[in-house]
Amino acid sequence: MDNYFITKIPYTKLNTKPSSLKVVRFINKGLRFLKLRYMLSPVDTTVDMNTIEQRINYYHLLNQVLVGQVEGDVIELGCFTGQCALLFQKVIEENQSNKTLHLYDSFEIQFSEKRDIKKVLLESFQSAHLKAPILHAGLFSETVPAKLPKKLCFVHIDCGHGGNVEEHKNILLDLFKEIYPRMSAGAICVLMDYNDPQINGTGHNANPGVKLACDEFLADKPEEIILLYGNQYYHAYFRKQ
Ligand SMILES: C[S@@+](CC[C@H](N)C(=O)[O-])C[C@H]1O[C@@H](n2cnc3c(N)ncnc32)[C@H](O)[C@@H]1O
């Protein structure tokens, strides 16, 4: 399986017209001339929920647990319209794996989306010719742990929306408590927005509650958090021992 699909719709939300590519090439030429060592890269942070670098990370991490036959299903806590979820299901299917994708969300936050969130998600799966995931609609306090699979091989937590830091931290701590014991040995948990400014530099720390919760939860555990380069967005993961 090649991974060029991550550059195309619906895995990216960018529908780049050939004329805009000409503009991008022109600007990049100027940037090269100025020796700034920066280029424009394909992400629109007003609509894209992940960057191309993060999609590369997700692709390899999920592939690893599938090829390694780690026991359990794949879940995402905070799926919104499913940009990450589509990639997860695509990788599951390309591996001819029988794992099920479970998605959890209140489906009540719109961000810049005007349409019905759940409907957009299901239509995207349909138009990408992917099997529909199992949706668990409601607040996590209603669906976790009640609707969690018994075993997990891959977990993506992405429930930040720039809200109250302490509240977000506590939501994550509650999730970790339920997810961690269900993760099989070798299972991976990816944390969107995990940002360590000492390593990542001084980018936009959108949801600082992620690092606070994760560091507190892992403090007495053998697992170690590993930061992954995501360009405009941040994330990190740990692998269950
Ligand atoms: C940044 S978005 C997720 C983006 C998604 N991973 C994607 O690829 O498009 C965060 C999501 O978390 C959900 N969320 C936040 N807190 C929640 C909670 N306590 N219970 C259920 N869903 C929650 C929001 O509804 C929102 O859709």
The largest sheet, given as strand count, sense and whether it forms a barrel, is:
7 strands, mixed
| The CATH architecture | 3-Layer(aba) Sandwich
Q: Count the helices. How many? A: 8
Tell the overall outline.
globular
The residue fraction in helices comes out at 25-40%
Any idea of the CATH topology?
Answer: Rossmann fold
Number of strands: 7
How many domain modules?
A: 1
Q: What sequence of helices (H) and strands (E) makes up the elements? A: HHEHEHEHEHEHHEE
In terms of per-residue confidence, which ranges show pLDDT below 50 for 5 or more consecutive residues? none
CATH superfamily: Vaccinia Virus protein VP39
State the end-to-end CA separation.
28 Å
Mean pLDDT: 94
Strand order of the largest sheet: 3-2-1-4-5-7-6
| Structure classification | alpha/beta
What is the CATH C-level name?
A: Alpha Beta
Measured on Cα atoms, how large is the radius of gyration?
18 Å
Distinct compounds present: S-adenosylmethionine
Q: Please indicate the percent range of residues in DSSP E strands (runs of 2 or more).
A: 15-25%
Task: Walk me through what this model shows.
37% of the residues lie in helices and 16% in strands. With 241 residues, the chain is of the alpha/beta class. It has one domain (52-239): Rossmann fold, CATH 3.40.50.150. The protein has a seven-stranded mixed β-sheet with strand order 3-2-1-4-5-7-6, with helices on one face. Strand 4 (152-157), helix 6 and strand 5 form a beta-alpha-beta unit. Helix 2 (52-67) runs parallel beside helix 3. The model has no long low-confidence stretch (mean pLDDT 94). It binds S-adenosylmethionine. S-adenosylmethionine binds next to helix 3. Residues 49, 78-84, 105-106, 108-109, 139-140, 158-161, 171 line the site of S-adenosylmethionine.
